[in-house]
## 1
Amino acid sequence: MARYYYVCRENLYAMKSFWLCIFLSLSLGLQAQFQQIKKIGIEDGLSNSFIMGITQDKNGFLWFSTESGLNRFDGESFRIYKKANANSPNSVSANEQNVVYADRYENKIWLATQREGLNSFDCETEQFKYYRNDPKDDSSLPTNDVTNIVNSRDSNLWVTTYHNGFAYFDKKTEKFTRFNQATLPSLASNTIWSIAEAEDGTIYLGHENAGFSIYDPKTGTTKNFRNDPNDPNSLPGNKINTILIDKDSNIWLGTDNGLALFNKQSEKFTVLRHKPGDSNSLVGNFVFSIIQRKNGQLWIGTENGGISILNTTKYVHVSPQDTKFINIMSGFDVFSLSNQTVHCIYEDQFENVWIGTYGGGVLFNTWTYYPNPEVTNRLSNKVACGICSDEKGRIWVGTDGGGIDVFENAKKIRSLNKSNSGLTDNAVLAAFRDSRNNLWFGTWAGGVSIRRSNSY
């Protein structure tokens, strides 16, 4: 049985209930449906409405890189990091940014800036560190215009640049190994926007105007693919903005002239494009972003089009004429985007989708809950206010009058309230897990209840 401790402190809370309510996601297995799209803009504290990247750290904070500052969002308010007059561990090296990336192996955030190098942010110490090009040091960052960052299979980093190829960064030695036309003569171009590493170590690269390259580290050679106007199965465009290797090892490319699926065996491309008059075709041909959600869907962000959603199966055999997309476009109602250019898309740990637009701020989807008594996974109360996870990955949902419901693997495994536990009040408005894995629940009239780690 879970043990709870009463803390008499009126003003202790983790997040206000409004934001926690709207973050409730389908991962809990509740009866829900897509309801509306919410916007967060400058008027809500965002530093800039041109969003370049989105990620989430291991503490649950969301991060937004923009054309003017880095933003950390706690569900209620923003903390903005801007460049200081001098190098400071509490500021970014540049306000003009590209992607922001959460390290999969450490509690760190990595920031690609447009002209001032690579930044790291330690989420424990809350200190920044800068990595810049040193012309006298060949093991330094190749150039200061960083375009993309991803983890390598061995927990280090791959970093791409606009003017000097890509690099492997060893986090322990803090040395960069450079791959450019000087060190790798077969590389088609030094201007690279996107990178992905396959399970076998193969590196896939997307260039600015030189197509798609594959680097084989075993042989040290590259192969390049470009558009051939006479071949419908060639790469559709030579500007590759994004590369996604999906859960089934399919390789998707977002180009300036459509979405492409690369066949590794035939080395041909299946091309999906917008068809005027066809509402089920790709919404726009200039593809900025591709993600795969936990449910398998591909979400594709485009320039001047909006978002296309594609349901994939384990074995993808896409026929362009048979492919149907679900499209979300700009409009004036709550079901539409506020801006038709979608630069980045991100799914958080609760399966909410965050949309970064170029000029329209941040958008995110919300879900509504219907209290159906026939649904076994239903909440004890139709209003969910505080959500957190425990050290075992179970989801604890505080409700407005029904106590706490605990979910594991999309199934409700327990309901806790005043009558069957030490919970002090059934109206649970906030939930928070601390660094020692204790769970804190802020209630309406019963103060704070604490569930000690490993007590249930």
## 2
Amino acid sequence: MKLINLILYFASDPHSRMSAKFAQSAASFRLTLNTSGLPLYNGFSKFCIFLCALNRRVFSCNAKFVLNKNRCGSVLILALWTVLFLTVLASNIGFRIRHRAMLLMRIEEKGALHHLAEAGVKKAISFLRKNFEESRLTLNAALKEELYNNPRRFGRTVLGKGSFEVSYQNPGWGNNSENKNYGVVDEERKLNINKAHKSAVRRLLAQLITTDEELIKKMANAINDWKEIGKGEAEGFYSEDYYSNLEFPYEPKKGDFETIDELLLVSGINQEVFDILKSYITIYGDGKININTAYKETLIAAGLDSVLAEKIIDFRAGKDAVEGTSDDNIFLKPFDIASELGALNELTKEEIKTLDRINESGIFKVNSSVYFIESKASLKSGKKQYKISAVYNMSEKRIQYWREK
């Protein structure tokens, strides 16, 4: 019994070196018993070794517990940094996914808007071709209304997820206060700056831009010098030296304008001047002016005075005094303009001479073949608008200009 108590004492003392030695002694005692031929006390030997091992395990756990108490703060900080990192990573991934989704949505919207606007242009071209085949676009009051002022045909058309309309801002004539008409615009109602004489350009500038004769002359000369080969006539600020002295110099084209926007490269033509001129000028067609559709400003630029131009517009408007309606009067032949106009409006001898003189120069015609088409599209789901502007030549059956915005 004493031996057992002694064993328990030494085995349970975690600070005593005797516990380890006791385990060695137990093993040695077991070996002695074996060599002396005495029975092997396996149970006792194993029991002693178990007590020593248990003592060491308990002591080791106590030491680890003390160390873990010191490490708890570090583990907690590490865990928080891990959570923060994962949160930032998840937010970044979410942002990227959202950005890509929005990008795909915009691409899809742009594609849908493009197809809607393109449908409007194709609808207008189809209508022009149909009328050209039936009547060679010989203008009459009904066709004039169909082409230039037709909300039923060219107004808002719902198609799929959105809608489109073919319309234009008409500074010259129309039957609404906003000067917005539904239809197409013939380019022959405008002044062709590639074909017109400088004097015609000066008269147009005098009506729209300024009354300063010197400035008008310089601007007209600059436009003329831009497209004509040879030494320019403009002097001073608007001479060819102007282009070479720019921060980013370039040379005058010395050729016809290829787009209306090219006019912005001409000296003296800023954005404000361009925005006023662009509705009254063109670079398409043969240079002749359609007297059945021309703006008053175009008629005056061609050489008519204001009173005679007003008489022509009154004649075209018909009884209701509104152009683009079914009661409009139409000039059928260029050389009959004076006689047809004189049947409804009294003309002076000077006015008749003016019309005859202009007719001899071949400036006027009574039909058009080049048309400007502007189709605007929008989606039901948003306020975004997409616009396609095109110029279609009926005689050549081809698109001469195409711009998407």
## 3
Amino acid sequence: MTLTLLGAVAAAGLLLRLLPFLVQSRRGSDHWFWMLYVETLHEHRRFPPKLPFLLDEQQWYPPLFPLLLACLPVSWLKRQARLIAPLVDTIQLVALMAVVHRAAGSATAAGLAGGLYAVAPLCVDYNYQLNPRGLGALALSIQLILYYAHTQTPDLHLLGVILILGAAILLLHKMTSQMMILFFLFRGVWSSDATALALIPASAAAAWLVSGGFYWKVLKAHADIVVFFNRHWRTINAHQYYDSDIYRKETEGRRLAHLGGLAGVRRHLKNIVAANPSILPLTALVVTLSRSLTPLEAYCVEWLAAASIWALATSLISPLKCLGAGVYYTYNAVFPIALLSGILVLDTGSLGPLAYAASVFTCAAVILRILRRKRQVGSSSAPVADIQPILDVLRELPEGALYCVPLGLSDRVAYATRREVLWGAHGYGFNNLEPLYPVMRVPLEDLLRTHAIRFVLINREYAKEEEIVQDLESWRAIVKNGPFTLYETPYFTAYEPAETV
């Protein structure tokens, strides 16, 4: 009976994570980047791989995720890669239920915890494409649970496993690495825990050793992106053209990740709560609890507090906004929220079931809104099929680098055609993005001339060519389909003109 209940919860969680695929067939740019990375590894047997992004100097992303993907057959990845992220997050759901079942000795408590994790909106919304965040979060959750076990019964062997997991996290995902470091700093200071503080440099040393020194390059690339966004956090999520001083439209600007004043604060708070609304009812449960917290409950409150404070700090404190979108740190808060809720809901009188029902109802409402939004975006924007004829033509065209409008098309095109594209933002070399990202700082024609770009692919739903190209009459349209037009520019004259389709 217990296995049936917990299996049903896990199945429901997986189904919820697959729902976004049914309402929107698009895959994000990260999906195509990781597929390109892994297939290039297989094709050339070179690490790190050389990818066709002209503005990346080196591929120094944390390497563990693509190296693990490379252990899978490429033929399977081409068919089923988008299932990996939902499956990984479902494994974390199962791990959560196992922890709660062991701690509370109750299948009901485990099922309640799993049910709350299953309906966490951020976990449902985020895992529609290949990405390392879920695997990093799984490793962090396991590490922190094992560290709790170590605090109760010190064990050097267990500490060794915790250290290995720390090294793995540092080699898996940058934002999860930052969350791990923040937790151990928080734990070390709040609880006067010297071991927690020591795990930070020890994990870095272990990552350096097991990677043969490659972790130093990962650190260098990590610093590169942090310094870049410390300069440009004000224009994160800006429209590349219509929020720039060169092509500005007064109707733009609302896309910005960080709005000024109270409007910005309200938006960040709304996004953080919407990512997992369960945090509000859970807070009420903890505050009204008539007994003292158990050591595990107190540890989870510490864990949750660290993740929540960090999410707020990186959203609201200007010098920290370069460390990633604060709302995504709430991904690492879902596990302790669900764990605490599963244990407390049966131990808080009538308030517990009410708080749980409110959590599930609110999460379900947010999920429905997410699915409705994805369906609207999918129906109002260019169908995925519209770009396929363009990709087919690009594969047959002679050599010459490509630029995409918007830049988000670059990874898809690079994967499908293996053609050089004027893009980067995947490894080391963020300074090279200054002229064009997050907003244009030079006229488009000057950018294309500087890099001798031969082809330009434009999606008119993002920007109209007549509004961003001054000498459009000198460009030649090769093929059009839907909102997409592929042009040949006059900025690379070493080749004969390509044939018009």
## 4
Amino acid sequence: MTLTTEPIKKTMMTMIAPASFGMLMTFLFQLVDTYFVGKLGTSQLAAVSFAYPIYILVVGLFMGIGAGISSVVGKALGEENTDKSKSIIMLSQVFFMILTVGIGVAGYYAITPVFSALGASTEMLPLVADYMEVIYLGMLFLVGTLITNASLMAKGVMIKTTIIMAIGGLVNLVLDYVLIFGMGSIPAMELQGAGLATVISWMVTFILMNILLLKEGLFSFSGFKNFAKAKTQLKEVLTIGGPAVAAQILNPIAIAVITRVVSKYGEEAIAAYGIATRVESLGLTGVLALSVIMTPLVAQNYGAKIMERIDQIIVYAGKTTVYWSIALLAILIFFSGNIAAIFTDNATVIANAKYYFIIVGLSFPGFGLALVSTSFFNGVYQPKKSLNLTLIKSLAFTIPLALLGSFWQLEGIWIGIAVANVLGAIYSDRLLKGWMRENNSSLVNANVIMAYMDDMKYVFSKLGWRK
């Protein structure tokens, strides 16, 4: 796919659709686990919920690296430097998978202190360990997949990676049922089975992604021939990826702090938070996919120095984020209770999750706009702005406001998260306008409110509501 010549709207939609489906499959890894684990009981569901911040931390860490790879590879492809892109991809995959092995081993031996710090009780720790021991040891396959996927997206390869993610999702679905509850001569492994099913699905996805990488002509070990050159290329990835990693890590840190605060309200509150955050991720798949494709799309056009297309990307990305978020909120307002009931029959858990969906759902547009802005800054080689945005949103807004709300009641935490999302969007708008002024963007004096009102008038006219 050509990211510098095709119409922006068409290009974005073509990339978002398969990326959304691919991410949907990724989130189904977690949702399927949640569904089946919920059948084991509230304690097991709470144990998996405790594991969620660590899982998001690891994913966030290497999504940040992926942003660096996507930006550097995308820019190299925009400059028609294919050899450099090949070298960076393989160097990154080997280096960061080896790093992940070390992280996994360290995490394996630190389960008790880490999850005790997150608020897990002594009785809960064995359940958490059953799940996380397997996850830690298999994380290298998840990381390899994330890096390979980011590399392929930098070239615009979307549909094939989506099919691979779908295959991984199906593998996880089948193995979850078999390994959690047992079948024939296979014993019921419960939480260990859930973890093992996820790791096997990661392995399958990783192998298939690398076969695709080879077929796309992006598989090469030439980068290992020159140590000095390899060091320089990895440094370039880390220059963009380093701040992106820090930015990605801040979000799970905020989630971990919130998990700790929510745990004070008991297992049912934790279970509700775990369900709500997973459904939230699933519902916002389109926005999350947009944030992922933004970096390579912007990077290629930035590398080719086509500023008019970058302005178009800003406009379409903003509108897509807002409208998707509003649509999700509408669904949650009417069906939040039914959605929560899919995962548990505990009335308290359902009620707590329902309040989260509605309260935090009101701030989904703000959450999405801040997220997409961080990806944009990575694409234009402004990783420090991306880090600054996430730093302010997580440490200055989300954590303090959630802690403040916790002094009232559980719903106070949800309100704190919602307010933080809105404030994060306001701050991201300030940073984005600053960048546009520095780069003589045609959008500097644009009236955003009028643009949305024009869209509404257009919709009303199509519905026959305008005289």
